[in-house]
Amino acid sequence: MITRKTRFDRSKLLIGTYCIAPYARDKAHVRDMKECGIDFLTAAPWDKELLDNCQKYGIGVVTTGVIPGWWGGDGDNAGQFAEKVPLEKIKEGADKYVDHPAVWGIDSGDEPSALDYEHYGKVIAYAEQLFPDKLIYLNLYPNYASVAENNGSEVVSQLGTKTYQEYIDQYVEKVNTDYICLDNYEFSAGTAKFYDNLRIVAQACLDSGRDFWFVIQVNSSKPDIWLNKPMLRHQAFTALAFGAVSLNWACWTAGWWHNEVLDKDGNKTEQYEKLKKVNSELRTLEPYYMAYKNVSFAFAGSKSDAAVESSGVPFLPSWSNEIFSGVTPGDGENICVGFMRKREGKGYALMISDVTNPACVDDGSVRTVRFQADPKYKISVVNSDTQYGLKYENGVYTVTLDNCGGVMIIAE
To answer: Can you list the pairs that 23-31 forms with residues at least 24 positions away whose Cβ atoms lie under 8 Å?
Structure first.
């Protein structure tokens, strides 16, 4: 699939955030957002002050309210999209639209039922004609549908299919976006659902040639819990090992749940510095990571982990292919391994994330990974945080990575 040319720079690892309350739209707040490592805002209103400030600091906006939105919600409105939002309403929205350079995308809705995919395919194709330089944004349900507490029948009624695999398969068949985007909140729904969702959507992106966009959490569904840095890392670097090329943090200001990056008065919470740190680690990897494209993924290790073992992803004592062999974490440790090929020219890489500690206890621990490589390749590493470097002894390479962190191993 050919990527559409829009105002989004799809050669970058795109880092976004959701929700921008009026008190956070002034110049100082938008500058803080840029300094935190944010590239774009999602589902933000067309607000001139906000757009002008975003333009000044190089932040793009996926704006909402331009065309009629649609939300699957609890499933009661499933299959009604075509009736409620005919294509004429999309044209009416486009006719009224006033462009701004900071608008990179147009929001078309959130978490639709598969029963509305056929009409969504028409809506997005039409909107792409009407807004040729804009990404038309649609976010899908996670595998637990609208809330983690859903029972099985509620999930099915929301998805509009018997299984989540069918939900994604039908999207690929009926909606011709060059990306698949969904949200999954690991520390609300659980790590097992997180891994399973990564597997299904990452594989669909590989099979269909689409980019993988992923919405993850910096806030919490529980008011007494503040996600720590390892929790943010675990989501982000595991998503990279599965090939994600856009990460979108929910939420910047109050949108849903608790403990956002800014409080209700616009002051930075403790999440600001945590997110800034993790985004900085992602930026360290970005130029190397985006030069490669994920082609497969697996878990490797020796620690018993129910979420890993139930994920449907291969779980091996060590990982090998024709370039790298014996990729093995330390005793009692687990890793996620994404194998990558260079987008232009010849070269290979591994994107490795530490998944030893799904509870993400912030204990300052470090992990080791040992491997061998085809001797005709030059091996280098880029670590997301501390630059531990690369050791080589008796034909075996050793790299070290931080708790829940990531590392790229490059063979060129």
So the answer is: 23/253, 23/265, 23/266, 24/252, 24/253, 24/262, 24/266, 25/49, 25/50, 25/53, 26/53, 27/53, 27/56, 29/262, 29/266, 30/54, 30/56, 30/57, 30/59, 31/57
Query: Measuring CA to CA, which residue among 282, 209, 219 is closest to residue 247?
Result: 282
* Cβ within 8 Å of residue 287, ≥6 positions away: none
Dihedral of the alpha carbons of 286, 242, 117, 110, in degrees to the nearest 10: -60
Angle between helices 270-289 and 229-241 (to 10 degrees): 20
Please check the confidence at residue 124 and state whether its pLDDT lies above 90: yes
d(CA 288, CA 342): 10
Instruction: Reduce the DSSP state of residue 228 to 3 states and report it.
Output: coil
**Strands 324-329 vs 103-110: parallel, antiparallel or unpaired:** unpaired
For residue 306, give the DSSP letter. Answer: H
Q: Report the half-sphere exposure of 321 (CA within 13 A, side-chain side).
A: 14
The pLDDT of residue 358: 85
Amino acid at 319: W
Phi-psi label, residue 364: left if phi above 0, alpha if psi -120 to 50, beta otherwise:
left
Residue ranges in 222-269 assigned as alpha helix (H): 229-241
Cis before 205 (ω within 30): no
Looking at this protein, which amino acid is placed at residue 245? V
Give the tokens for residue 244.
């994600």
Those residues with Cβ within 8 angstroms of residue 130's Cβ, 6 or more apart along the chain or in another chain: 90, 91, 94
Q: Which helix (H) or strand (E) holds 297?
A: strand 292-301
Q: pTM of the full predicted structure?
A: 0.97
State yes or no: pLDDT of 317 exceeds 90: yes
- The CA distance from 344 to 403, in Å, is 32
Instruction: Note the helical H segments in 160-269.
Output: 164-174, 186-189, 191-208, 229-241
Q: Give one DSSP letter per residue of 120-162, joined into a string.
A: HHHHHHHHHHHSTTSEEEEEB--TTTT-TT--HHHHHHHHTSS
N-term to C-term CA, the chain: 27
Residue 239: φ, ψ to 5°: -60, -40
Burial class from Cβ neighbours inside 10 Å (0-12, 13-18, 19+) for residue 260 reads buried
The three-state secondary structure class of 4 is: coil
Question: What is the token pair recorded at 115?
Answer: 């029963």
pLDDT digits (tens, 9 = 90+) for 209-266: 999 999 999 999 999 999 999 999 999 999 999 999 999 999 999 999 999 999 999 9
